[in-house]
Amino acid sequence: MVTEILVEVARAFGRLFINPIFYLAIIMAIYLGYRRVKRERKYFHIRILWGWSEAIGLLKEGLLIALCISILSIGFGLTLPVQFLYVATISSFLALIIYVFHFLSPIILFTVSLVVLFLFDYFDVSFNLMGLKMNGVNMDEGIAVSAAVLAGLLLVAEGMLIRKYGAKYASPIVENSKRGLKAVAFLSKKIWVLPIFFVVPGNVIDNYFPWWPQISFASTQFSLVLFPMIIGFQQMTRHTLPANLYPKLGRTVILLGEFVIIGGLVAYFVPLVGFAMLVVGLVARVAISIRYAIREQKDVYAVSAKSNGVMIAGVLPNSPAEKMGLDVGEIIRKVNGIEVHSERQLYEALQINAAHCRLEVLNHQNEVRLTQHVVYHGDHHRIGLLVAE
Fold first, then answer.
1. Helical ranges in 105-213 per DSSP H
2. pTM for the whole structure
3. pLDDT digits (tens, 9 = 90+) for 327-378
4. Domain extents for the chain?
5. R_g of the chain computed on alpha carbons
6. Percent helix, strand and coil across the chain, each to the nearest 5
7. How is residue 185 annotated by DSSP?
8. Within its chain, how far is the Cα of 52 from the centroid?
9. Which residues are paired to 96 by β-bridges?
10. Which of 196, 201, 255, 165 is nearest to 67 (CA)?
11. Which of 97, 151, 170, 266 has its Cα between 20 and 30 A from that of 360?
């Protein structure tokens, strides 16, 4: 028994690496980094994060979350048909190709996949796709329960990733306000791959344990699939600083995920509730994105040129500016005792004492604070600051 299960787990890992969506996600992550670096160099002549940051974080940033969801998926036997994963793969592929990452929210992918399979069943449609018979499933078979619970868990994962990494990947973009002044907006666009173990009907693992799985499709044997679940995110911010907007957006998505999970558990007794919860979750997730997008369309920029100093638009990692605790949206009023009102004045004042930098900064609470740092040989000559001007 143990040997058979270990072999099946090894096969599940193999199934991850033969899924084409996994490699498309890697290519897209590399492309995202390339586009971001090119954009930052266009506006500020320097990149903030390394161009490979998106690719490195593709798997790394969501790996622990994926492990937790996999444990819950296997532990409770949340079974999904293989056809469901095929439709989810195709949906993810299309969303990546058209470069609209709103469609890569798990609630959208799961709802679309479930609707497609229900329509196949309703119209009695079936065909062979790469050796797999694609046919519909009935709502009473339990898929609505598994799909709703898993979609809720993945929504929570999406919210956690947005809350933690949304501001990190927020890239500054110079725009013209309606009054013709230069201002800075921020675009955060990112994808993550969560390799998650899903239980599917198969002929490898017998039902050795009477409690497993809890939710199945009238099957007595099951297989494991390590599926590369793609989670995508994109959001522009103008009116609100990235450090304030993305954590708030993440918490909102987490609350929605918890709501969908509760609905999925209720669906164990009333299957229709699971499907209804997926539809409600989809509508709510789209509404959240629209609400934040509309709010950030206001022509009041959080980061723009100021008359009382130089506003920070970006801070390079591991730079003197970061070590001094400088943050996007703060205003530098004095450098080495000299008032500054432009980028040129800022760097001229820095050269007065090239070995030591002393700043007077107006923080987000409109309080003045002093910060200083010894500038070492090899530090960025502009102390790692991007400014709005």
1. 106-122, 143-165
2. 0.91
3. 999 999 999 889 999 889 988 888 887 677 889 999 988 899 999 888 766 5
4. 2-295, 305-388
5. 25
6. 50, 25, 25
7. E
8. 16
9. none
10. 196
11. 170
